[in-house]
Structure formats: structure tokens, C-alpha cells
Amino acid sequence: MGLDAALGISVSGLRAINQQLRVVSNNISNAEVPGYTAKTLPTTSVVAAGKGIGVATQPVQRATEAALQRAIWQREAGVAAAQVRASVLAPLEALHGRPENGDSLAGLTGRVRDGFIALAAHPSSTSLQVEIVDAAAALANKLNMLSGAVTDARNRSQQMLVEGVAEANRLLGEAGSLTREIVRLKAEGQGTAELEDKRDMVIGRLAALMDLRVVLTEKGEMTAFTKGGQTVPLRDGALAVNGASLAPQSYYEPGGGTVPPVLLIDSADPTKPVDLTRGQLGGELGALIGLRDETLPRMQAELDEFAHKLARRFDQQGLRLFTDARGNVPQEQVGGGQKGYVGFAAEIRVFAAVVENPSLTRDGTHAVPGGLPPWPATREVQAPYGDPFTPNPPGGPASFDLLVNRILDFTFGSQLGVERPHDPPLLTTGLGPRGDLSSPIASTGTLADFAAALVSAQTAEHAAAKASAESLASTRDLLANRYADAVGVNLDKEMALLIQLQNAYAANARVITASQAMWDALLAAVR
């Protein structure tokens, strides 16, 4: 081998080693950076006429483990969904209170019942009558607060959904830009490892946001799908959702309703968007849609059901204790579910006539059947009624206890009258503005039973979301650790490689020094 060839080989080796040293140094300095994968610089021998004439480098490559990475992205979607559910539902669990403190719906219902038990023993006690009114006001206020919290949580979900869609649009645009650059560089034979790391980070966030599924090709191309299989273009503005202020009566319905849908906008024909609201999105956006359109409306419906039957069962026995703002008990529609009293829990209050005259808790407000409570703007009592009842007349006996006993036996009991089941019963299906929601709470039993089950069911929603988030996060972290071991930077390995490269650099340098010395000797010999 001539000196020129030896010198050329050594110089190409030094260049390759310099590039490898940069790659190794970059690995070491970015070892703790989230999403960074270990990089390598492949080298090949350059051969001419069957003889090696040097070393050439290929584009930088990154370590990959595609199957494991996809599994992590799917877990990210599950974790994000559970976490956002837990976050939105946490204030509701806190507001329900603890049963042992007596401030839950069940505890406050028991307080009203205990007030009537005490009044039954002392019907003439003015202080006990006032205590019943105060207990009833506390129960109504609790229902107002819970209903308001559900509406607040629903509006928070809607606002978070709007913000999440905006972020998803931004990330889709970023993924599109990165993909186009990756495809261009790959076509030119240049390295794309750093850009692919960045794109993976974007995909990971999109997976958490909407459970986006992707297909990546060797050319660098990327195709994205929703979990329902709808193709999503990689551009900003691909998704759209309007802001809205939601009330208990607000509902989502494909092609209608008063709750805005999440739409996929086709840039070629923006007048024909695709509705992604039902079944297409997962992750944070899917969880927020589920909270906004199903979980929280169902919670509102359960509160409305309890509030309505609470007011109705008192009214049926001759005491209008709970009403709406006009002094009425909302009328239900036969076969119409909750259409007559959606949102009643938000406005339920103690009947103004009873507040002014607490003795009505002993004497009653109207006759059964028929009769009109003595207050302006009130409606007649609805059928069906409890057993016949005549209120205690003005100046009647202070020991009148017929109404109190009716309330204890029937309003708080499991029957409307003697051997007559409650009518209307507590509903568990046909709930909500559209009548399409169902509740897991049993419809049998007493008001106290329903209140206790309602508290248990609604607080369990938060507990379940929190437990699910912890479980899924644990699985995700295990997969992430395996992925990091497979594609992350191993500092021990990198340091060992760094030493090898330093030694190789020194060896190549010595070859160049020897070649230089030989050139100097040859030149000296010919002078």
C-alpha cells in the first residue's frame, strides 16, 4: 500500500471518528432528556478495484422499538382520560361530604326525618317546627350546591374540550410539518433521527389528548387515525368545536341538540364536516366528551330525581314543604321521563308559606285529595294522592299529629299509602333532557335509601377514575422503563465507546504521523 493510500485511509478514519465522537457526546449530554433515543453513526468501508481506500459514514440512526412505543401511546391515552375524569369529578366528591359528618344528602335527609320524629312527640313545640324548616332549607341548599357544582364541572369540561381541541390542532400542524421535512430529508439520503424524536414526542401528546393512532412508513410518511378509524389530516384546523355555556337542560344530539359537537373539517369541502363526538375520540378529549354528555348529565338527573320525589312525596301527604321558585312542585309527564323537572335540583327551596309559618309542618298546607295550597301562583296538587287528609284548622288542637305521622309513615317510608306503592316511583331510566340516560341507583326503597345510594354512586365515580389512573400509570411506567432500556442512552456503554473512539483516533493519528515522517525522509533523500 502506498503512502498516499495509507494517508487517505487514516484521514477518512479520523473524519468518521470525529463524527462518531459528536454522536456519542450528544448521546451522553441528552441522556436524561425525555423522548431522546440513543443515536448511532453507521460506517462502511470504501472499496476501489477490490482494495479498501477509506471509511464512509451513513446518516445518523436512532434506536427504535415500534411495538413497545405503540403500547405506551395507548396507555398514555388511558392514563390521560382517567386523570382528567378524576380532576373534574374531585370537587363533586368533596362537596358531597362524609356520611359520618352528617352533611351529605343522606345525612341531611335524616336530619329532616329526625325533626319530624321529635315533632311527633311534641306537636305544639314551635322550636321543633322551626328546626324542621331549617333542616329542610339545609337539604334544599345542599341540592342547589350539588346541582351548581355539576353544572360548573360540565362547563369546565366544555372549556377544557375547547382548549384541548386547539392544542390538538397545533400538534397536528406540527406533526405535519415534521413529517414533510422527514420525507424530504430521507429522499435526499440525509439523517432524520432528531426530527423523528421530535415527531414521536408530538405523537405521544396527541395520543394522550385524543388516542390518535398512527402508521409510519420507512419513507418517513405518517398517517393518523382516530380510535374509531377516521383519518385525521396532519394540519392545524383539522378539528373544530364551539364554545358554549351549558345548563342542566343542555344536551348533545347528532345533527342537533344544544351542546356543540367536535367536528373534523375537510379542507377540500369544509361545508361537510364529520362529527367525531360519539365513539371516535379517546384520551383527554374523549373523557371530557363523556363527562360533558353522559356522566355529569346523569349525575344532574339523579339529583333532579331525588329533588322531585322529595317534594312530591311531601306534597302527596298534605304538606307542600319543597317547591320551585314559584311555589310549585313540577309536574311529571306520563311516560315522559324527567322532561317536566330537568334542573329542579338547582332551584328547589322550602315553600315560602312554610318559611313564614313553620306551624304548617304540623298542620299541613292543603287537603288530600284536591285542594290548593294557600299561596299565590301555586298549582293544585297533582294526582295520584296519598290517603285522604284534612289540614288542622286555624285554632285547631296544638296536639294535632296526623300529618306528622303520615309523613313519617309514608313520605319517608316505602309506600304512598296503606298497601299502595309510591306513585310516581323513583326513575332510573328515561333520565335527562332527552330521556336517554340511565342510573345504576336502585329505584326501590325510601328517600333515605335513594339519597345514600346517590351519594355512594357519585362519589364512587371519582374514586374509580383515580384508581384507574393509578393502575394505568403503573402499567405505562413499566412499559416506559422497558422502552427506555431498549432505546435510551446507556451511559456505561457510551463511555466505553468513547474510550474506544479515543483510542482509534490516537491510532489513526499515529498512522498519519508515521506517514508524514516517511514523506519527510523521502523528500530529504532526493534533495
Which structural class matches the secondary elements?
Answer: mainly alpha
Helix share, percent: 40-55%
What proportion of the residues form beta strands (DSSP E)? 5-15%
Counting DSSP E segments of at least 2 residues, the number of strands comes to: 16
Order of helices and strands: HEEEEHHHHEEEEEEEEHEHEHHHEEHH
Q: Radius of gyration, rounded?
A: 37 Å
Low-confidence stretches: none
Helical element count?
A: 12
Shape: elongated
Taking the alpha carbons of the first and last residues, their distance comes to: 24 Å
Structure, explained:
With 527 residues, the chain is mainly α. The chain has 12 helices and 16 strands. It has helices at residues 3-29, 66-96, 105-121, 126-187, 193-210, 283-316, 344-347, 352-356, 360-363, 402-411, 447-487, 491-526, and strands spanning 39-40, 43-48, 51-57, 61-62, 213-216, 222-225, 231-232, 239-240, 252-253, 256-257, 263-264, 274-275, 322-323, 349-350, 415-417, 420-421. The strands form 7 sheets. The protein has a 3-stranded antiparallel sheet. The chain has a 3-stranded antiparallel sheet with strand order 8-11-12. Strands 1-4 form a two-stranded antiparallel sheet. A hairpin with a 2-residue loop joins β15 and β16. It is elongated, with a radius of gyration of 37 Å.
